[in-house]
Specification:
Chain lengths: 112, 111
């Protein structure tokens, strides 16, 4: 099992550019989520999905878009990158919202 | 408003001694609590959890204590080892609502 994989590991964007952060899991987990980690802020939930075709907003959803067309994949789209989106992004998955989550290795994004 | 607080950003402990990491929460509806450990350049990994119906849960060197009246939980690591050096996040949820993470405590275990 590869677990939760994320690509790319690092990315630099210019303000206004768009991009997609990829996330995939091979554990057949229904629940997937995206977090961002900023210094002194802990992990904050951006978007989550309880199954294919179902997504919902988390604590900090503005500027991000998600879709869940398959159980395995949960991409995160930045529509128009801003310096405030400079962060480390983690994707996570679990069997359900109330079981422990498995995290990917993260994507470090810098927006200049 | 931070619902889950880890007031100590860092902690330094000698190898072999006890490490105590603390976490406070404000939402009395939280009924499930977890600790995650994070090494640099890696994602967080689940460490131990506790349900609000219990006040203690133990797994090897790791024990989590929950004091519901004080809205406080703590993670004890005994004995501490250099490999325990990492950032520790506590998290809480009101099942099946979303998980809320604290800001993390960086633990350094020195020889």
């Amino acid at each position: 099992n590869a677990g939760v994989t994320q690509t790319p590991k690092f990315q630099v964007l210019k303000t206004g550019q768009s991009m997609t952060l990829q996330c995939a899991q091979d554990m057949n987990h229904e629940y997937m989520s995206w977090y961002r980690q900023d210094p002194g802020m802990g992990l904050r939930l951006i978007h989550y999905s309880v199954g294919a075709g179902i997504t919902d907003q988390g604590e900090v959803p503005n500027g991000y878009n998600v879709s869940r067309s398959t159980t395995e994949d949960f991409p995160l789209r930045l529509l128009s990158a801003a310096p405030s989106q400079t962060s480390v992004y983690f994707c996570a998955s679990s069997y359900s919202p109330w079981t422990e989550q498995y995290f990917g290795p993260g994507t470090r994004l810098t927006v200049t | 408003d931070q619902q889950v607080k880890q007031n100590s950003p860092s902690l330094s402990v000698q190898e072999g001694r006890i490490s105590i990491l603390n976490c406070d929460y404000t939402n009395s509806m939280f009924d499930y609590f977890l600790w995650y450990k994070k090494y640099p350049a890696e994602g967080p990994t689940f460490l131990i959890s506790i349900s609000s119906i219990k006040d203690k849960n133990e797994d090897g060197r790791f024990t989590v204590f929950l004091n519901k009246s004080a809205k406080h939980l703590s993670l004890h690591i005994v004995p501490s080892q250099p490999g325990d050096s990492a950032v520790y996040f506590c998290a809480a949820q009101s099942v099946p609502d979303k998980l809320i993470f604290g800001t993390g405590t960086r633990l350094q275990v020195f020889p």
